[in-house]
Design a protein that fits this description.
Blueprint lengths: L4 E5 L1 H7 L3 H16 L3 E9 L8 E9 L4 E9 L11 E8 L6 E6 L1 H19 L6 E5 L3 H14 L3 E5 L3 H15 L4 E2 L3 H5 L4 E4 L20 E4 L16 E4 L2 H4 L9 H5 L10 E2 H5 L13 E4 L4 H18 L3 E4 L2
Parallel strand pairs: 1-6, 7-8, 7-10, 8-9, 10-11, 11-14, 12-13, 12-14
Antiparallel strand pairs: 1-15, 2-3, 3-4, 4-5, 5-6
């Protein structure tokens, strides 16, 4: 057997790479375009629940992106009470492989990748589906993905007003302070859902509920708004999809009946949102096969569950930049 080496990119390496907002968005958008053109394999995620979903679970995502010539598997833990131990709620490892022979190519700390690619998906959704003149953002949730949601959307829209809220005061205050420092603009920290969301041009729900609870009221959504609910446990009213002109998902295979978790889980399982009445997958819109927003009056919902192809594309971009910067370690595999 020939010598086989693996590139290892750890957390400090990922931080040192300092991917720009544009680099992050471009990598994920490239993967979405490939998906829309039928050049990806995205296996439905599977879950490992060690004890109960109340405590936490692991997501296992698997995929292949043909234009990049790479396959990958990511395992990410999602444990809601990790903050009590000073740990992030989501920690992950991404493994990349050569799809021609199965040879392992890289092991990457994917905790930041998970946050970045989720934020990029939200931002790309807004790029194609929100009004171009959107100036008010309402954002529920302060976990890792929340930061990148706000940062990457502000990169595209330069909001006049950013409102944030999360359940714990210390969490939301720290979140608002971090955003203000990094974005260089005021951030309004609210103490309730209504003040945060009502009347916003873009409304994002990334809450951490232990069980489904309708805290996001349909009546708060104004005509022409763009709504992104993606909490693991649903926080929306069942009526929310009734006012939508278009419902878009990242991948129907992740959303169709029988899959666990997600904001629209009940809507799908009870037949309110179906493959037939779905407007499009995001990749179809990015690839130009389906229209995005067609007028300012459309009220549009985008539900994304998270795609292995986004993880793989962002990991691949990190590998390329690490090589140029001389970062990462070489591990002997065989």
């Amino acid at each position: 057997m020939p010598d086989i080496d693996i590139t290892y990119i750890n957390g400090p390496d990922v931080k040192a790479l300092d991917l720009t907002d544009a680099e992050i968005i471009a990598a994920v958008e490239e993967a979405l375009r490939a998906q829309g053109e039928g050049q990806t394999v995205i296996e439905p995620r599977v879950h490992l629940v060690p004890e109960s979903s109340d405590k936490g679970h692991f997501n296992v995502l698997r995929g292949y992106v043909k234009p990049l010539g790479v396959a990958g598997v990511k395992v990410v833990g999602d444990f809601v009470d990790n903050y009590k131990q000073g740990l992030p709620s989501e920690m992950a490892i991404l493994n990349l492989f050569d799809p021609e022979n199965g040879m392992p190519k890289a092991i990457i700390d994917a905790s930041a990748i998970t946050d970045m690619r989720t934020g990029a998906m939200t931002a790309i959704g807004a790029k194609y589906l929100a009004r171009k003149d959107s100036k008010i953002l309402g954002h529920i949730g302060a976990r890792g993905t929340a930061y990148w949601n706000v940062r990457l959307m502000d990169h595209l829209f330069d909001f006049d007003e950013i409102r944030v809220h999360s359940r714990r005061p210390e969490s939301r205050d720290a979140f608002g302070a971090r955003l203000e420092a990094d974005l260089g603009k005021p951030v309004h920290v609210t103490d309730n859902w209504q003040e945060c969301l009502e009347g916003a041009d873009i409304m994002v729900e990334a809450s951490r509920l232990p069980e489904p609870q309708p805290l996001f009221l349909t009546e708060w959504v104004k005509k022409g708004a763009f709504v992104v609910p993606y909490g693991t446990m649903s926080a929306i009213e069942f009526s929310l999809t009734d006012i939508m002109d278009k419902v878009v998902v990242d991948d129907w295979g992740q959303c169709k009946p029988g899959r666990p978790f997600g904001s629209l889980r009940r809507h799908v399982d009870e037949g309110k949102v179906t493959e037939e009445n779905l407007h499009a997958e995001m990749g179809q819109i990015v690839a130009g096969q389906k229209p995005g927003r067609e007028n300012d009056d459309e009220t549009i919902l985008f539900w994304h569950r998270g795609l292995s192809s986004s993880d793989i594309a962002l990991g691949w971009a990190m590998m390329a930049k690490a090589k140029k910067m001389g970062l990462g370690q070489t591990l002997k595999f065989a």
